[in-house]
Write a structure and sequence with these properties.
By secondary structure, this protein is mostly helical. The protein has 4 helices and no strands.
Amino acid sequence: MPDVQVQGEVARILPIVMMAFFTVGPMMMVATFFQAIGDAALAALLGLAKPYLFALPATFLLPLWLGQGGIWLARPVADMLLLLLTLLVVLHHCRRLGALAGFKGRDD
């Protein structure tokens, strides 16, 4: 027989933890893209930023301000920060390639 108290806690915590889970797949694809084009530095940045730059500090700092809820918010906060970093990296890459400069036709 399942423990009702455990079920209640899981029902309370799971929506919080899964809040930003939808961002994981696309961000992994972007990191894989950079690995495929030979930009290992950006691929490594995107692959290692969540666990080391975002999740660890969030896990220790958020509970100081938010109590127990901060522990459970650490994962979605880390996911959203990684999403922001990923968008900035992609924007920088596109600008570096000139992809966002607008279409300029060739003078043939």
